[in-house]
## 1
Amino acid sequence: MLWGLAGDVRALLMLPAALTMQVAHPAVGAGVDEHSVFRTDPWGRGERSLRSLQLWIYGGEAAATEGRRLRELHRTIQGTDAHGRRYHALSPAYYSWVHATGFPVYRHAARYLVCELTEAEERQLYAEWLQVGRILGIHDRDMPQTIEEFWPYYRKVLADELEATVVVRELVDVDQPVPPPDRGPRAVRAVLRALWPLLRPPLARFRRFMTIGLMPPDAREAIGLPWTDAQERRLRRFARVVRAVVPVLPERLRYLPLAREARRAERLRPGPRAR
């Protein structure tokens, strides 16, 4: 399930919703607020985060190495949240929540952008997401082991913990200053810098629209993010176009780089009779 979902370009539309749910936890939000470079280097941070996520799924032996690197990176991240409570990034409750958000977002967003998952597919997706948690160094005792255990845990976090933190408000603020992209060919970057005053406002509105729209409704409500019936209809129209267009794209446009490489290597791997 993850092999197909996580490397598809449609996953790029899903990730902001998961990130926003993560930082809606006061401890996670404080860690990002105080230690992340998302304000000064948003494009670089986004690129690094995306590559890391892709390695968990398509990296083979490199997945475990990446999981260890992330834990080492977070080892010194600690402080006090907005409620005066001490936090450490590797505290199981906080690290596990960051991981946990992926499953409900993939499940919900797939209904719009890919297809409705069957019960068997949901169970398979959850089992695979548990394996991602193990790659990240999360113990089984700190993750719900079945879907039946997951949903009460998830609803409890929504009810008891999540709020519109400072970072959440920044992520959905369409007036938040964001520098132009600093990745890609020099000529493209120059054009983007010149056009950025015109491009940034509609892109910011689109990001907010997709972030809130692809977030599970119960999480959206828990955080206090508004969503109207008119916006829901717009999202459904947009999703119909995406579902029609993406499956017919050539592979080089449909899949992200690490996913393309992994899919190519899998096709080239000799079968049992050829060994």
## 2
Amino acid sequence: MKWLRKLIFRKPLGNSIFDVKSRLIFVFSVIALTSSSLVFFSFSLYLIFNENTQLERHLRSFESIAKDHFILVKDDFSQLGPYVRAYYSEAALDKELKSLLPYEEGVVTRFRVFSEDGFMVYYAPFVESSGARVPLYLVIGSRDIEFGDDSWNILMLISFGLMAFLIAFLRFSLHRLFDGLMSPVSELCEQLTANKEEDFHVSERSIDEIKALKHHLNTYKQMKERLAKQEMMFAKYASHELKTPIAVVLGAASLQAMKDDPDFQSKQRERILIAANNMQATVEVLLSIVKQENVRDAHQLRPICSQDISLDKYYKKLNAGVQILLSVEPDTQINLPPAVFDMVLKNLLDNAIRFTEQGKIEVVVTSNRIKVIDSGCGLNEEAGTEHGLGLLIVKRLCDSYGWTFSLTENLSEGCCAELNLSC
């Protein structure tokens, strides 16, 4: 029992694998002792509470023997075996048994069964061959037969044997348990600490939950890398969206210094105002995404109609023979602020125009759906890369305002960019 004393008198345990193992050994030992004791006392209580039932069955089993014995000896009293007495008349009963008359027929009546002088009486009258009715009283003492005496030593051996088996099996079980559970955890901890580029891995003997943890860690790692790439793309897109109007402003300002013509000066000022307004809208959208200020008004609906959507600035970008068709459902209301809606539509149309050389571009707007359908080259690998860069901002805006975004290829030609409001 040296290991038990070490567990009791050692310093407080920490949370290392060795300390957890020591705690488990102690807990398993307590469980083994407790379960063995429960087995022992359960069987003991079962024997105690069922001893009288067994004694009653033993008494009933002498009914046929008593009847056959009476036919042979015709006596009022017989000793059937070392414990059972048979009385064949009320006169033959001793004083105490007479004082308790009458007895219920066919029932074993118990008297003071938990006392040392307790007894049971089984009244089972019968009719002999001559037709005479013979009263039969079978009597046995409550403590004459102790059914538990022969089983007590067996119970003790079973209980102590079970306890010894459980404690002996403990260390082997814990060794297997820690090999299958704690070793993979230690491996994952070392891999996390090392912060290496390769994916996390564990042995094939690991339990399914550890393998699932490894899978999720690899998924989160890939997600982290993907988000980092998306952040770079987002920064690249933001830089592009801001550089273009700034270049327009600088160019127009430089041109203003070249001519004093009022019409020329007015035209350059108009270019500067348009570029500044576009840049302001872009900055508001980008700040709304970064600061997540749009969450407060994500459920505020705003009416929109065909007159609110200006497509003039896109016509000059179209290839020859390509037309834009706009359809807005009556009484349409959406939760996208004007600046956000313009930014979304701008990205969808810019991508559709870039890949559509002939045919048409359809814009469909309803309260819960926005679709831009083009007849361009579809989703090949090269186009997919360009689409991914241009439409990253659209996905960000959709996530912020509760919309889902999908880009699918049409069955005939071209592709369909679709936004759906989540329920």
